[in-house]
Design a protein that fits this description.
mainly alpha, globular, 12 helices, 78% helix
Length: 291
């Protein structure tokens, strides 16, 4: 089997896991979001270091902690990522799964917007039109303050800014994420110890075995995504990324029966039109690169 097919399968697996993770976070809904995030950082960091140990890259990764500038970059990117995780889980547990899906639909368009404003990247006319249509799609929800999609916008902007900050670092995804989670680990452990002492319950740190799996559900799709990124074209990867929010949208709509108001339907229709143009532009760019 070719690396290309393996890459497609890996990308499908990564985006499928990210799409159905809302079911997992709902299952952990009895636990406060702050505790979930702290455990996610703790166990993700543990698993990532084990992977680095297996790949014999621990010593090289440790060296990165001796570079203050690099640590500063990854501390900021880690804060952005943990903030994105926190809002995503909060939205899931507060019946805003569909709005969360909207945020991840919008993410590529904010990536292009920031790429143009910050890195002076150039885009085709079709890509520019897709950005405008996506913005109009979000604007459809502005006229009713009660339905202003702040969750979607914050998710899209925070993850795009995470990408902007990560561009400043030369580290690959695995090492970078390991450094990020390790830098946030002291804060997470301090918080977890604090609540254990506050509640006079030392066993609370490990009283929820389900939280151990937060590291697995974080690391697995990231590793699959990393493999896919090395083996298939970025245009194909860009198109496939919409599988995640689509599954999230379907789960919120069909399983958890979240309402779809007329303005939301109009908003999503415009967003999906923008996505179609984005995918068309990505395919054209991919064909040009092949030629």
């Amino acid at each position: 089997m070719s690396h290309n097919k393996n890459g497609i399968y890996a990308a499908s697996g990564a985006f499928f896991i990210w799409g159905i993770l809302v079911l997992y976070w709902k299952w952990l809904g009895r636990i406060p979001v702050a505790e979930i995030i702290c455990h996610r950082i703790l166990w993700s960091s543990s698993i990532l270091w084990l992977i680095l140990l297996w790949q014999k890259q621990c010593r090289a990764t440790f060296q990165h902690f001796l570079t203050p500038k690099l640590c500063g970059i990854h501390f900021v990117s880690g804060l952005l990522l943990s903030g994105n995780w926190s809002l995503y889980i909060w939205a899931t547990l507060n019946d805003r799964i569909i709005e969360g899906a909207l945020g991840y639909y919008l993410n590529p368009f904010f990536n292009m917007l920031f790429g143009s404003l910050i890195f002076k990247e150039r885009y085709s006319l079709l890509q520019k039109i897709s950005i405008v249509i996506a913005i109009i799609g979000v604007a459809c929800q502005f006229y009713q303050v009660t339905t202003f999609p702040w969750v979607a916008l914050c998710l899209a902007v925070s993850f795009s800014l995470y990408g902007v900050v990560r561009k400043k670092s030369p580290l690959p995804s695995l090492s970078g994420l390991t450094v990020e989670t390790s830098l946030l680990l002291p804060i997470s452990l301090t918080f977890l110890i604090f609540i254990a002492v506050r509640d006079n319950d030392p066993s609370r740190l490990f009283s929820e075995p389900a939280l151990l799996t937060t590291g697995i559900v974080t690391a697995c799709p990231l590793l699959l995504f990393g493999f896919a990124a090395r083996n298939i074209s970025l245009s194909t990867l860009g198109i496939m990324q919409f599988l995640g929010p689509t599954l999230q949208f379907i789960i919120g709509w069909q399983i958890y029966k979240e309402p779809l108001s007329p303005q939301k339907i109009t908003s999503f229709a415009l967003i999906w039109t923008a996505i179609a143009l984005y995918c068309l532009a990505a395919r054209k760019k991919g064909k040009k690169l092949k030629n």
